[in-house]
User: Fold these one by one.
Assistant:
Number 1:
Amino acid sequence: MLGLAVALFSLGLLGVIVRRNVLVMLMCMELMLNGVILSLVTFAQQTATTVGAVLVFLIFVVATAEIALAIPIVLLLVRDKRTLDIGAYTDLKG
Amino acid sequence: MIESLLLNLDNLLLLLFAMCALVGAVLTIVLRQPMRVALALISTMVFLGGIYGLLGVHFIAAFQVLIYVGAVMVFMVYVIMLLEVREHEGARYSKLVLPGLIGFVLLVGTIGISVWSGLPPAVVAKDASTGAAFGITKFSVAFLNEYWLHFELTSVLLVAAVVAALAVIKVSRRGKHG
């Protein structure tokens, strides 16, 4: 299970690096979070402690807040540029 | 034959779910259309929920399906359908895919080696299905007795998220008028 968690996290990271679509990048971030949650659940279950499960709950809340903030930002960006391509937002480099 | 299969049913199901989750994760990166990516990710999350159920933490499995699939991914699918920007003739991957891949391999290799050598051997060697499961009673008692401060802090975080979302909406209104 730890191997699966590592695989999910690295696949998500790879997706964030190589994909162009903003929404797909957001979904790959969710995949990374899922890998972390799987590792926490595995540790909590191996050691039979509740700390990991509590942390999983906090991660659920953080993921919900993150997606609730990221989606309006993506909507604003798309309304501005009319595209989902991450390459169009190079003027955000500052 | 059948008895040994039934005895190992938990491990077999665990392996099957892990394989399916891995396939869904690979499809998340490979597929082109955002809606198909979302469906692959949803299937990955459902299979992860099944893994949590098999590991004995049923309430986390329920919350995985309820919160992730039921709330976050439905929100995501809704936004994909709302935007509906048709631009599939463009490249699927970024122009920097080769340097990105090299950097990714280096990063994951470094972190993986350093973390793996730092883990105690008992954690690595232990089988996933040997640990003891704990019910929601133990969890909720520990949650509200020891971690009430963190619980309150998450509510502060949620309030901050609501305020930030309102600020984002205000920015968009100002952009529309000005």
Number 2:
Amino acid sequence: MWTKIKIWEIRKDSLLSLRKDINNRIVKNKFNVILYYNLIPLIIAIIFLIIGVTINSEIANYFITAISIFAGLFFNLLLVVASKLNERKKIIDSNSDEETVNYVERYTNFSEQLISQISYTIILSLLLIVLMFFIHFKKWLPHFEWQYLSLFYHGLKCLLNGIIFYIGVQFIVMLFVILSSMYTMLLDDIKIKLPK
Amino acid sequence: MAHTLKLSIYCFSIRKGRTKEFVGFKEFFNNHFIEGEEKKYEVPKEILYKRFADSYFETFGDQFIKNIDETKAIGINTYNTMPKLNIIDGMVNGGITGIDQDIFDSSNAKAAESTIDKSKVTSLPYYFKIWMPYDSQVGVIMVQSYTETGVTSLFVDKFKQFFKTKEYIFDFERHVPKEFKEKFAKKSVVKEIALYKTKLSAKAREELNSLFADFEGLKVKISISGFKLDVDSFKEGLQDGRFIHSDLAAFEITDENEYETIATYEDVSGRESQAKVSKNLDIFPTIILNNDLKETGKEYPNYKKIQSHTDAILEKVKIDIEYSPENVDKN
């Protein structure tokens, strides 16, 4: 295994972080994450497929554009989180009180969790973009008037749409998680007095 | 044989008057230890800590403070404040008083060499540690004692009284770090189960014996011993917090909320500990300190050694009470 690619590690850390608090303790039941991160997206994807929602080439292009913008922002956000953490680590140089050390340690935990969540969301974005490209797959495939082949293509399209809906909702869930963490981070920014 | 050092740990919090809301220590220090023109929250923590410690230990003066029964007394030996760590620690002298004690040579039990007057205190040194985090409402008190004697309750009571003078209600409860409990549970066996029922109806008292009918304070204790079960087997025998499944309706021992079950544990060294049996089976074993914490050639603790040892225990307590992150590095 090429260890330079750590997609599974990012996924594992990110999903585990959804169960952790800022003290790095696992406080949420595994079922909570399964419910919000797996079951709800799965149910929504099935409902969409049942009511016949499909993604055509035009919509796919819009989605690709929107997700690409988000992915770009997320890369930037990674740097912002790391920079804010470094600012806080400097506090200890001038104040080594127990509560300050604890605060910085909690902020480090928070940042680590947020970084893993953002990184994983970038992976989801890339995956969604690739899947959206496949929406055009019918144009690239050889065209025959065989009933079974068209049925197979239809099934493949449904599967692809289902996967896109499923991962798309997971992407939105992660987006909410990141948004909530950003909210906490910005409120903390307002409260904290950083050393000059 | 040597004396064994023990450690008692209590978590505490304070409430103003009869309110249910706990007061943070930052608020407490800023409410009571600001002087003259000083403004709240602007006085450095170091100064507030020192003022608090001085103010508390001044209440001892140079004297020994006795308990209500005047059977034990404590006096301050030394104390140190470590505001960065939110710790105040030191040594108290304390021991038995209020009784004439004869001194014998151990080789002669017939003739007393001298007598200690009942007004005197036969004293031993005890280590204490008070942790009051500036950003929290829960503090910790640790008091060392000896297996044969101790002044823990007197020390805690004196601390409680200090808060009472400032019109605070002092709530505290015993704490044993989770790690100690788990270690104890692994190595110990349950050797006795006792069921306590403190209130019986007139009808039940009458049925037991008509002579009991008028005794409203009649108590029932059913004790079962003569067995040894490891903690896992003991847990298997529990059903909704009930270990004894026999019909004890005659003693009105039916609803598990209306009686107490106390289990007696014994560890490999023969040390016993009692715990109320509940669904989570919380045990409060005695925390025994290592002999290497003692002063060389003496039976009492070395201040530096016990200080660093209790610091390590305090870190465990902080994680238990969810004050510290699990991966915090204080160095």
